[in-house]
Structures are given as structure tokens and as C-alpha cells.
Design a protein that fits this description.
Elements lengths: L2 E5 L10 H9 L2 E8 L1 H4 L6 H19 L6 E4 L2 H12 L3 E6 L3 H11 L4 E6 L19 H10 L42 H14 L4 H4 L12 H5 L5 H14 L3 H26 L21 H9 L5 H13 L4 H14 L4 H11 L5 H12 L14 H8 L4 H6 L19 H7 L14 H13 L3
Parallel strand pairs: 1-2, 1-4, 2-3, 4-5
Helix pairs in contact: 4-5, 6-11, 10-11, 11-16, 13-14, 14-16, 15-16
């Protein structure tokens, strides 16, 4: 009886899973496998909240498999070695996996191919790297023309998606270790894990928020974003399903503004593809600037200021609220990510790689491609980078995207009684107003660690030196 190994990496779902589909077409029996890879688990970029979300996702997938007569086999060790052992134990003659694109994934898969017959099927992207190029075959390095070429391709539709199988037959005599971690309490995790939770969140977004997305996505004081990123990160939600559902929403929109909002969300999915393509074609971005001249930039890298940024003690409320949310929830609004990244790189002149690693250590949705792309955009070192002279003002950003201070007050309770007209610049409160609000600057809440205007001029000089 033929056996195929389905090696899961970033595709924790049964529906629209090309690797599972290829394995089912190949073998009578399927061995679903997750390998606890020490190279990833011991990485300085690993995050406890992301691991907790992953463990919960594996449990959810195992539950779905058991409902179909199968189970998830978990092993610990070098992937190539463990897959070779599993091949021997099960008699499998093929290994199938969804392709991944990080530099480590490429190296890992090259080693695996030396020991087992690995075949990749499908992609973590909607349109995989190599499918969208310039006329001369070179990859795009600017988002707008990439987006236009992306949209010129046939979009995924519902009928293209692979259904989850009703039954999966699995060898019974293959050893497995336990899934790590303990189930998280609901109040500890704002992101319930698993494909069912992912599909439910997608449905809720399509019903409630997608038609206000164009305006709501930038507001910190409302839940105007999809919050699908953790599910896309681990493939609990098929990116093709997200794109197909967005296309249906666009077609069903009641008016021009609603269609614009649906298209804006589709553009965000395309940004995700774009950064996957960039990482695949230009792997050096994982450790250095896409625009290599910026590797010579004279970062100041003040460790005390970095600590203040990490802990939400910079004295700029919108920055501090976002950083405290990150530590508490393992998530941050995309507008807030842009604000805090600009502050770290442009106000504090701290190397974007410090911030990139901190995000990866804390984000539930921490993704090597998207996180790197976002940080290099903010730092002005990347592809579609914000020009080096575009430096976010944390006060005006707070006033614009959190006008009544609701977001700030949620995460900075020491500012609860600060009047609205000072909520984003509390250091300007007169002494009697500080006393009345129970918020003495320098005691109850820190004074700004830098002067934004002075920092801006310093940063402009540093960038001009390498332009």
C-alpha cells in the first residue's frame, strides 16, 4: 500500500492545501507530519506568544485529522534526519510540502532533498515567486507595477479551492511525541488558533468591516482591520481563500466606496505576496538593507533608548501604547507598527534590525518576509521605502489616528485623566493640569526621551551622508 508523507510547515489546514492534495493523489495512506526543528525553536527570532499560537494550531489540526480517521505525527530533530526515519518507518515513497521562501527554508529543503524524495506543491503566496516578473524576466522591486501585474493574472475563485477530504487513512504504527505547551486560556489569547477560528474571523470581517476598511484600517481607536495575519502566517487560512473571498466581497459591494474598501484590502494581500517575492529573489534582505548603500548608515544604537522603546517608556503616548499592546497581546495595529518603526529608526536612529528582531520575538503573526519588508519600508532602506526624509511625527500621528486618545488610555492607564488636548503631548500640560490629572511628567509618566524636531534634523544629516 503506497504511503505519502505530508510535511506541514506553514499550511496548518485541510482545505485548499495543495501539498495535502498532491499527497492524496499519490498515496493510499497519508502520514501528516510536523517536525519540531531546533534550528527554528532556538532562533533569537522566536517568540513565546507565536509558539503558543502554533501549538494551539497544531492541536486544532490534530483534532480535525482525528475526525477523519487520521492523526498528526510530531517529531523532534533535524528535518532531513527525521523525514528519512519516517520514510523508513512508514514505507513512504514520497514527501510533499507547500513551498516556503526564507533563506533558512531553502537551505533546509536542499538538505532534505539529499535524503528523501521531497516534492513541493503550492505556495505560501497567492501567486508564487517567479509567476510575476517584468517583461525581461527580472523580479519587480517596486510595489505598484507588481500590483498591476498581479491583478492582470486570473484571480483565485471559490471553484479553484481544494475541499478538505472527508477521510484520511494514516499508518497506525508510527511513533509521535506530544505537541508542546499547554492550551492557552481564552483571556490569554486574543487569537483562538486553528482553521475553524480562521474561517470564522474571515467571515466576520467580510460581514462587518471590509466595506469600511479603506478608512477604518488606519484608526487605532477602532477594530477596523481584519486581524487575519496570524492565520495567514501559519496557513490556518489559505491565502487563496482570503483573495477569493475578497473578490466576492468586491463584486457584492453596494457602492463605489464599498468597492474601494474591498480593493484596499486586496491590495494588502498583494503587499504580502510582494514581500514574499522580495525575500525569495533577494535573500540578503534578511540580514542587510535591500538598498545596500544604507548598510553604511551611522546608527546611534543607544541601548537605554532602545530599552525605553521596547518597554513603552519613551514619553510619546502613541508609541508607548503600541509597544505595551505588543508585549501584552503579541499583536499591533499596522498603523501603530509604522509609527513605532519610524520612531525607532528616525527619532532614535537605532538600526531597523533591532526593531525587526524585537517584533519577531513578540508578534503572534511575526513573518520573516512581511516583518522585514515593513521595517525596511519604515527605515527607508527597502524596496518601496518611505523616503528617508519622511519621518512620522508621533504627536500628529496620534492626533490623526487616535483623536480622542481612546487607544492611548487603554494601554497607558497613567494617562487616563489627561485632557484630550494633551493626551498626545502630555509634557506640555501646565503643572496644575498635571496635578489635576494625577499625572506628573517625569514621575507618573516619563518625559520625552528625545526632542522630535532635533532628532529629525540629526537623522536627516545621517541619511544624507550615505545617499
Amino acid at each position: 500500500m503506497s504511503v505519502a508523507i505530508w510535511w506541514l510547515r506553514r499550511d496548518l489546514r485541510l482545505d485548499d492545501n495543495p501539498a495535502l492534495g498532491a499527497a492524496l493523489n499519490h498515496g493510499k495512506q497519508i502520514l501528516p507530519v510536523w517536525i519540531l526543528d531546533p534550528a527554528l525553536l532556538d532562533s533569537p527570532y522566536v517568540g513565546e506568544k507565536r509558539l503558543s499560537f502554533l501549538w494551539a494550531g497544531l492541536r486544532a489540526l490534530d483534532h480535525d485529522l482525528r475526525e477523519r480517521g487520521s492523526r498528526l505525527v510530531v517529531r523532534r530533530g533535524d528535518p532531513a534526519t527525521e523525514l528519512r526515519r519516517l520514510q523508513t518507518e512508514s514505507g513512504a515513497d514520497a514527501v510533499f510540502a507547500v513551498e516556503d521562501y526564507s533563506p533558512y527554508a531553502y537551505r533546509r529543503d536542499q538538505r532534505v532533498r539529499q535524503m528523501v524524495p521531497l516534492q513541493v506543491a503550492g505556495s505560501t503566496a497567492i501567486h508564487p515567486p517567479g509567476t510575476i516578473t517584468k517583461q525581461d524576466g527580472d523580479p519587480y522591486v517596486v510595489y505598484s507595477p507588481f500590483m498591476r501585474s498581479w491583478k492582470a493574472l486570473r484571480p483565485p475563485e471559490e471553484e479553484d479551492l481544494l475541499p478538505a477530504p472527508d477521510k484520511i487513512e494514516t499508518p497506525v504504527d508510527v511513533a509521535s511525541v506530544e505537541i508542546p505547551g499547554k492550551p492557552a486560556r481564552p483571556e490569554d489569547n486574543p487569537f483562538p488558533a486553528g482553521p475553524a477560528a480562521a474561517r470564522a474571523r474571515l467571515a466576520t470581517f467580510l460581514e462587518q468591516d471590509i466595506y469600511q476598511y479603506d478608512t477604518g484600517r488606519n484608526q487605532l481607536d477602532i477594530a477596523g482591520t481584519s486581524r487575519l495575519s496570524p492565520y495567514l502566517r501559519f496557513g490556518m487560512l489559505s491565502p487563496r481563500r482570503a483573495a477569493a473571498a475578497t473578490g466576492r466581497a468586491w463584486a457584492s459591494a453596494a457602492d463605489k466606496q464599498a468597492r474601494k474598501s474591498a480593493e484596499t484590502f486586496l491590495n494588502e494581500l498583494i503587499w504580502r505576496d510582494f514581500y514574499i517575492h522580495i525575500l525569495a529573489h533577494f535573500p540578503h534582505v534578511r540580514s542587510s538593507s535591500f538598498r545596500r548603500k544604507y548598510d553604511d548608515l551611522a546608527w546611534e544604537n543607544n541601548e537605554d533608548q532602545f530599552t525605553a522603546w521596547c518597554t513603552g517608556e519613551t514619553g510619546y503616548p502613541v508609541v508607548d501604547a503600541a509597544m505595551r499592546q505588543l508585549r501584552a497581546q503579541g499583536w499591533m495595529h499596522n498603523r501603530a507598527r509604522m509609527i513605532v518603526a519610524s520612531f525607532l529608526t528616525k527619532d532614535l536612529l537605532i538600526d531597523w534590525r533591532w526593531g525587526e528582531r524585537w517584533f519577531m520575538q513578540h508578534l503572534v503573526d511575526g513573518d520573516p518576509a512581511a516583518n522585514n519588508g515593513g521595517w525596511q519600508w519604515a527605515a527607508g532602506t527597502g524596496t518601496d521605502a518611505a523616503p528617508y526624509f519622511r519621518i512620522f511625527n508621533p504627536v500628529s500621528q496620534g492626533r490623526k489616528h487616535d483623536p480622542d486618545g481612546e487607544f492611548v488610555r487603554r494601554w497607558l492607564p497613567e494617562l487616563q485623566a489627561v485632557p484630550n488636548n494633551f493626551i498626545h503631548n502630555p509634557w506640555e500640560m501646565p503643572a496644575d493640569t498635571q496635578a489635576g490629572a494625577g499625572c506628573i511628567i517625569g514621575e507618573d509618566y516619563p518625559a520625552p526621551i528625545v526632542d522630535h524636531r532635533e532628532a529629525r534634523e540629526r537623522t536627516l544629516s545621517a541619511y544624507k551622508a550615505v545617499v
